[in-house]
Amino acid sequence: MTALVNMDRLNPALAQLRIIDGRLRTFVGRQLDTTGSELVRRQWLATESRLQDAVFTLALARSYSDAQPLAADILLRWKRLAGEQEAVLARLARTSGDPQIRDLARQVQQARSDYSRLVTLPDAKPEQLSARKQARDQSLAELDRLEVALRTRIRTFANQAASEAATWQAVRQALPRNAALLDLRAFKSFNFKSRQFDEDHWLALVLEASADLGSDGKAKAPRLVDLGPVAASASDRENMARLTDEDLCLARYLAKRTERPACAEGYDAANFAAPAQAQARSEAIGAEIDAASARFYAALLGPLDRELAGFDTLYIAPDGALDLVPFARLKLPDGRYWIERQTLRQVRSGRDLIAREPVPAARGLFALGAVDYGSARSVQSPKKAKSRSQPSGAALARTVANTGPNQPNPRLRAACSVFPPVPGTAVEMNYLKTHFDPDGGEVLVLQGRDASKSRLKSHSPPPRVLHLATHGCFIPRADPAERPMTLSLLALAGANRVPTAKAGADQSDNGILNALEVLDLDLTGTELVTLSACDTGKGEVDRSEGVYGLVRAFQIAGAANVLMTLRPLNDDLAAEFVTDFYRNWLDRKPGLPADPASALRRTQLDWIGSERPEKRDPRHWAPYVLVERR
Asked: Which of 133, 199, 415, 568 lies deepest, with the highest CB count within 10 Å?
């Protein structure tokens, strides 16, 4: 293929690329099915991305523009490929009548629960460390084995059934009038002569709706654009995140007004000397984030700004670190927030716009909130938390490290601290209880000790809306071999209890629900999952596959839409925002769109235009992102 390109024989080169791509997807699909280690599966996908990079490079060369349709298909078929395959397999496992598949699925669910329990056990005595690690390794190996057995059993057509239909024509047909898809992807430009790869660049696929005709009366073909080096916009993106972290630390200090918090290390000490200085710095940070977001938009999407402005609706499919960017909050060249100019809708891949095999619509509501997390040994929880983020765990981590093996898991507590009560979630529970129309289903709102992991995992049938109002947390990876889906979690009833490692102890409900366990929920037909908690969009970021976390897990479990957050929340304002969102969705005025994404935009625009300054502040409306699929 490289030789054909160097000889300027484009058509034979494209024909060969199509053949290679089809064979490679079949091969990689089998590898994903038969490889137990998730780390190895991710490495497979990264290794096999080189062909995609070569095709993208061809498509971007002016003399090879005929390669753009092939490049569009390849981008749409490969992006989030592993996640798509997992979703197909999970759906087949849930609906299969094969008793072997059903039995294997039950074994996988138990193995995921067992492994998750071992990950969250308290620290062991020095003489127990080796045995504890061996137990975790054995549990993970058994989970890998069972998942391979299940995937092998139900493989049949699952490898490519969804991705084969993901042509750019099919995606374009699914777009509404005057809408476009902006599918972003990181890639490395390939030099066909030297056979060397360049630094990472951002690639944009712009695909307009088939109903929108060009000046020649024909629907426009897909267009790929090189947006430049990833590094060119990375500094402003990272600066936005850094400033946000500083702002959150200032908020913790202002909430207590007594001592400099542990999170203040590394920031200017003068800003934490007194409340007045902290308040002034917090106000300045808002303007700095606005400036950084404007620079970031200009660096990443400036070349496309005029073109993108012409669409009423823009579907954005981010990639890699862009999954953690609040696009609605970005500042445009005219000074407006991006969401003020046009409707923005987010998907994991352009492929998610293609309608899937229809499933019966779920009915009713299942909500967990106002959770009783229990008491944590040696730790006093505050009576009221003004934030759904946990206080810094640094001091607690030091305490735990010095108090022996019967204390909470130090790694979990260092990342998440204790889980204090969140009074604002009771407001959300009360609103849903009184305003949600069951439409023939059940409205079940569980609070206190009833808001447990076991109640969630055993709930049936799938609800139309699953609402989880609690604490969220992300734990940085410590071991390359551990499953990244165990690192993103939600706290439910009893999450502060110290688990026991004693043999025979009941560990069926430790109060910690991680993304790995979410995979086994049955959310077939669920229209919306609302994660009304801090940082629920966070997870381990992977090239092409995006974030391994809660959003990925809930969509694999069957949910069509997931409303998540990209930063910690203020408890009172979070409750107000969420109830406003449901009011805009459930009690909308006649003639307004009926989908959750439209309701989210109406809510954010209402807050931007509010007379109350705290509601206008993007700290409180911008963290919410709805990720949808059809």
From this structure: 568
Tokens matching residue 158 = 């699952």
What 595-599 contacts at long range (C-beta under 8 Å, 24+ apart), as own/partner pairs, is 595/561, 595/628, 596/527, 596/528, 596/561, 596/563, 596/626, 596/628, 597/345, 597/561, 597/626, 597/628, 598/343
For position 385, what pLDDT does the model report? Answer: 52
What distance lies between CA 73 and its chain's CA centroid?
A: 24
Taking only the tens place, the pLDDT of each residue in 326-336 is 999 999 999 99
Mean pLDDT of the chain: 86
End-to-end CA distance of the chain: 37
Q: Which residue has the tokens 């699909």?
A: 29
The order of strands in the sheet holding 488-491 is 471-474, 488-491, 512-514
Sign, CA dihedral 376-379-382-387, equals negative
Contacts of 148 (CB under 8 A, 6+ apart): 33, 34, 35, 36
Q: What is the Cα–Cα distance from 219 to 26, expressed in whole angstroms?
A: 31
Beta bridge partners of 444: 366
How far, in Å, CA of 272 to CA of 267, rounded? Answer: 9
**Dmax of the chain from CA atoms?**
77
C-beta of residue 374 within 8 angstroms of C-beta of residue 343: no
Whole-number pLDDT of residue 188? 92
**pLDDT, tens digit, for every residue of 281-321?**
999 999 999 999 999 999 999 999 999 999 999 999 999 99
Q: Is the peptide bond before 405 cis (omega within 30 degrees of 0)?
A: no
Whole-angstrom distance, CA of residue 581 vs CA of residue 427: 13
| pTM score | 0.91
